[in-house]
Design brief:
With 462 residues, this protein is mainly beta. It has one helix and 34 strands. Strands 23-34-25-30-31-32 form a six-stranded antiparallel sheet, with no helix packed on it. Strands 24-33-26-27-28-29 form a six-stranded antiparallel sheet, with no helix packed on it. It is an enzyme of class 3 (hydrolase).
């Protein structure tokens, strides 16, 4: 069964290889599926000096279905190798999908934790938190479920993120209570295989938080600058001014987690990204002690089916890797240093118009004021009266749509352009806008207008 399913996936890759490769919207330096649909980044880890990025993958269609774990490895997070499929949905406990999860190293072995998804004929669902192990980080042996569904949650119970503190292992799982409120549950173990629930650490109607979504996905607890930062992707938030404009959100709480007795005191929720396409972020700590984040540069919404890459057999990508730092009660994101390896043909741009498709731009502002940057006549970034706005064309309606955040001033923009993506870091990562956009391949012009003054350095990336 396993080998048949995997070979069937590889046949899809081979069948559509040329079509995918020749798509003008294929990205230059981002991780993408070889065919089909990619979503959440999974199992991020540096194992024996090598970076591993796994991802949710449906090789058979550009829609969500029974997910595999695709797999890339790299020595530098810049140049990547496509590895054999890590996990396939081929067991009774994961037959409808090897859903999202994480990776840890123990005794020189690489362990993957993931959610096994089972959908019954009567429409009900079963969920199992499962484990797989590898000696070399490439070929994995499934060891089956290690945690079944606790009775106080619905089967929307998934996305285990595991870490070690002292001699104990801990796991956070995104969950939905029986009265359909999103929460994060914490479990602990001495051996990775036997887990006990410690309790609920955060969620709707907890810790001073009001109703806050019907499901919380992809929890991740990280330690930054003496604080415990809980990343989570809540579903079911209503738009609130400039906030929560996407169908689902991704953000964080800053607090302090006491393990005994269990208590997580935290502040308010802050969105990680203010653009259109950012969801299900996950982090890992590398051998240099950096906390590095990847996210799905997309979201499950009505736009998916309208992306022009669908007709060429693939959809979605991951963001570039971003290093996280906690500054003044806010998580800042910055592109990892290794991405400088992509730079070539540095230029000091003095014109208000130039060509760029796959490029890195750094704008250092000398004088504040209103401005507008237009990217290939398909998206624009504008600043006026303390508001920064990203606009693009809606793929379904063709009308303009926008995302906005309030900023007292703009001192720096660090922009990563790829053939069909924009990642814009404002004020050294104080805010970030991430978006896919699909300009005419013939239009390669970036232009500026306004009263602001700045120096602009440009590199082609490749």
């Amino acid at each position: 069964m396993t080998e048949i399913l995997i070979q069937k996936a590889y046949k899809e890759v081979k069948k559509y290889r040329n079509m995918v490769k020749n798509d003008p919207y294929r990205l230059n330096y981002h991780l993408m599926p070889p065919v089909g649909l990619l979503n959440d980044p999974n199992g991020l880890i540096q194992f024996k000096g090598v970076y591993h990025v796994f991802y949710q993958w449906n090789p058979f269609e550009t829609a969500h279905g029974a997910k595999f774990w695709g797999h890339y490895t790299s020595e530098d997070m810049v140049y990547w190798r496509e590895e054999p499929i890590a996990l396939a949905p081929d067991e009774w406990y994961d037959q409808n999908g090897c859903y999202s999860g994480s990776a840890v190293e123990e005794d020189g072995k690489l362990y993957l934790f993931y959610t096994g998804n089972v959908k019954r004929d009567d429409g009900t669902r079963e969920t199992y938190q499962c484990i797989a192990v590898s000696e070399n980080g490439i070929y994995f042996k499934k060891l089956g479920p290690v945690l079944k569904l606790p009775e106080q949650y619905t089967p929307h119970f998934r996305d285990p993120k595991v870490w070690k503190k002292g001699d104990h292992w801990y796991m956070v799982v995104g969950a939905q209570t029986l009265d359909e409120k999103g929460i994060v549950a914490l479990f602990h173990s001495n051996d990775l295989f036997h887990w006990e629930e410690a309790g609920t650490i955060a969620g709707s109607d907890m810790n001073g938080l009001k109703e806050f979504g019907y499901m919380w996905e992809c929890p991740d607890l990280i330690h930054l600058n003496g604080k415990d930062v809980l990343l989570v992707s809540p579903q079911g938030l209503n738009p609130d001014g400039d906030f929560y404009q996407n169908l689902f959100q991704s953000g964080y709480f800053i607090g302090e987690l006491d393990y005994e007795p269990l208590r997580y005191q935290h502040g308010s929720f802050t969105e990680l990204d203010r653009g259109f396409d950012f969801y299900a972020p996950q982090t890992f700590t590398d051998e240099n002690g950096r906390t590095i984040l990847y996210a799905w540069m997309g979201i499950t919404d009505e736009m998916e089916a309208h992306q022009p890459t669908v007709e060429n057999g693939w959809v979605h990508a991951l963001t570039i890797p971003r290093e996280l730092e906690l500054q003044g009660g806010k998580v800042f994101q910055k592109p990892v240093e290794e991405l400088k390896k992509l730079r070539k043909d540095q230029a000091l741009v003095k014109n208000n118009e130039f060509e760029a498709v796959s490029a890195e731009l750094i704008l250092d502002f000398k004088k504040n004021g209103p401005f507008k940057i237009t990217f290939r006549n398909e998206a624009s970034l504008s600043y006026d009266t303390a508001k920064l706005t990203l606009k693009r064309r809606n793929l379904k309606t063709g009308e303009a749509e926008s995302r906005t955040c309030k900023l007292a001033s703009v001192s720096k923009l660090h922009i990563f352009m790829d053939h069909s993506s924009l990642e814009i870091f404002i004020n050294d990562g104080e805010e970030v806008f991430t978006a896919r956009y699909f300009p005419d391949s013939e239009n390669v012009i970036v232009s500026f207008e306004g009263e602001a003054e700045f120096t602009l350095i440009k590199w082609d990336l490749g």
